[in-house]
């Protein structure tokens, strides 16, 4: 079975490509990032300028012209169609209680700027203290609980701007 890939060039043009089409190219590696390619008797000089392997996004210079190429497989497309993003995280704007418990400490105030991994609050649940760290840098928009409050599972605790 021949794997197929979708190539999106400069966020505008989409190409479907199979692995066998790539092996049909006459490509010679000059350096690990530079290649000489012959396609239909036409010579091309290609250089990988920037590579984001996890996001599958590459900036390639072909005969002096820059192109941004995003590569996705059928699995990548299926994951995106299901509402997930490949190689990227979604922006978290709220912190909710994952279980019922008691707020032992609220370490932030409304309007405070926090960095990723700063301690936001400590929740006691099932005789354990759970520290909630900031999932991202941002500014605290609202706080819906305070020290000593009993909270329920799913209750909004902190909201980011």
Write a short abstract of this structure:
Keywords: Biotin. The chain has 161 residues and is mainly β. It has two helices and 15 strands.
List the helices and strands and how they pair.
Elements: E1 4-9, E2 13-18, H1 19-23, E3 26-31, E4 34-39, E5 42-52, E6 57-62, E7 65-72, H2 74-81, E8 94-96, E9 101-106, E10 113-114, E11 119-125, E12 128-133, E13 138-143, E14 150-151, E15 156-160
Explain this structure:
With 161 residues, this protein is mostly beta strands. It has 2 domains: 4-81, no CATH class; 94-160, OB fold (Dihydrolipoamide Acetyltransferase, E2P). 8% of the residues lie in helices and 53% in strands. The protein contains 2 helices and 15 strands. It has a 7-stranded antiparallel β-sheet with strand order 2-1-7-6-5-4-3. A 4-stranded antiparallel β-sheet has the order 8-15-13-10, with no helix packed on it. The chain is elongated, with a radius of gyration of 24 Å. The two termini are 48 Å apart. This is Biotin carboxyl carrier protein. Keywords: Biotin. It comes from Flavobacterium arsenatis. InterPro entries: Biotin_Carboxyl_Carrier/Decarb, Biotin_lipoyl, Single_hybrid_motif.
């Amino acid at each position: 079975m021949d794997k197929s890939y979708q190539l999106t060039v400069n966020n505008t043009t989409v190409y479907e490509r199979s692995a066998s089409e790539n092996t049909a190219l006459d490509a010679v590696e000059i350096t690990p990032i530079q290649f000489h390619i012959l396609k239909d008797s036409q010579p091309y000089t290609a250089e990988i300028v920037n590579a984001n392997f996890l996001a599958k996004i590459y900036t390639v210079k072909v005969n002096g012209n820059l192109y941004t190429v995003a590569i996705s497989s059928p699995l990548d497309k299926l994951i995106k169609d299901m509402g997930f993003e490949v190689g990227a995280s979604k922006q978290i704007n709220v912190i909710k209680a994952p279980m019922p418990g008691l707020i032992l400490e609220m370490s932030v105030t409304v309007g405070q700027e926090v960095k990723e991994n700063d301690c936001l609050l400590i929740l006691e649940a099932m005789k354990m203290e759970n520290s909630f760290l900031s999932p991202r840098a941002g500014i605290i928009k609202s706080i819906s609980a305070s020290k000593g409050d009993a909270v329920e599972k799913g209750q909004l605790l902190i909201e980011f701007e």
